[in-house]
Specification:
Number of domains: 1
Helix content: over 70%
Number of strands: 0
Order of helices and strands: HHHHHHHHHH
Shape: globular
Distance between the termini: 26 Å
């Protein structure tokens, strides 16, 4: 029960924090001008719900982590046990700070759900990035000390931020492709092709960061091919890498096949662009599904012993 609750709460928290970060980062790079009002309202609701889920799942993660440390779920109600975890463990200190950030995000997104401004977007992005990156301080990266530990934490934080930008960014991108009519309140049309190209540009940076930091994390947590193949951690990591490879394949097909075809159809035969847009929607939804499997794998391997040394 404790192990299942820990994995589930981790999974929901990862979904919420990546969604929060991706939705917060999106307007900073996706639009050439101001964000359309309808998209701003929709994104404000995504931010609010993601912040609430992040706070709730984060509290659940903490509760099940306390139970896992103490060995009994009933100890979650023991103030002495909870206090000891908060005061005497690195996990407790990190989680106290993370809970405060989550509360700030809930307040910010609920009080200003649809108001859009550069200052508000920057503040939300800063807090969302801090909430996501700080997960590096509560995982396997804490195993090392000194410069190796600092390197591992930095790599893990960068890995998390890149995942949030890519996986979370697929949510507003999917909304634009699924049902947004492309019209702004001022009568101007949203440049969907431009949004796709700017998202692809961000994706290059995110993927490069994920690959580089993933290699660093594997060096610390896996160590060798034999350890990868001979441990439960390694097998789950292989599934995660397979899902990641599938996402890369879909993203490459989007960038080098579907997006150019969509642009060409829009110039020469606008009705045909609906066909290519439908194919692009399917690819984006498939990327999101594979991304959920990636997050599930991360949620599981974070609760078991790393492959290195096994």
């Amino acid at each position: 029960m404790i192990e299942f609750g820990l994995v589930l709460s981790r999974f929901l928290h990862y979904i919420a924090t990546t969604s929060l970060a991706g939705a917060a980062f999106f307007p900073l790079y996706a639009y050439a001008g101001t964000e359309p009002e309808r998209l701003a309202r929709w994104r404000g609701r995504v931010l609010a719900w993601s912040a609430v889920l992040a706070l709730a799942a984060g509290l659940g993660w903490f509760a099940f982590a306390v139970a896992n440390m103490s060995g009994a779920l009933t100890d979650v109600a023991d103030t002495e046990v909870v206090g000891a975890v908060v005061r005497e463990t690195g996990f407790g200190a990190v989680w106290t700070a993370r809970t405060a950030i989550a509360v700030l995000l809930v307040g910010l997104t609920l009080l200003l759900p649809s108001r859009t401004s550069v200052g508000r977007d920057l503040l939300t992005s800063f807090l969302a990035a801090g909430l996501l990156a700080s997960l590096a301080g509560a995982g396997h990266a804490q195993m090392e000390e000194g410069w190796p530990g600092a390197l591992h934490v930095a790599a893990d934080a960068a890995h998390l931020l890149a995942a949030g930008a890519w996986l979370g960014g697929l949510i507003p991108l999917g909304f634009i492709l699924l049902g947004y009519d492309g019209r702004r309140t001022d009568g101007a049309a949203l440049d969907v092709d431009g949004v796709l190209m700017r998202f692809s540009g961000m994706g290059y940076i995110a993927v490069a960061t994920l690959v580089g930091t993933g290699l660093v994390n594997s060096w610390f947590l896996v160590g060798s091919v034999s350890s990868l193949l001979a441990s439960a951690y390694g097998w789950i990591l292989i599934v995660k890498l397979a899902c990641f490879a599938g996402m890369l394949g879909l993203a490459a097909a989007n960038r080098f096949w579907l997006v150019p075809a969509l642009e060409a159809a829009g110039r020469k035969a606008p009705p045909e662009s609906a066909v290519w847009k439908r194919k692009l929607r399917i690819h984006v939804l498939s990327e999101q599904a594979l991304g959920l499997f990636v997050l599930l794998c991360v949620s599981i391997i974070g609760t078991i012993r790393p492959a290195i040394g096994q």
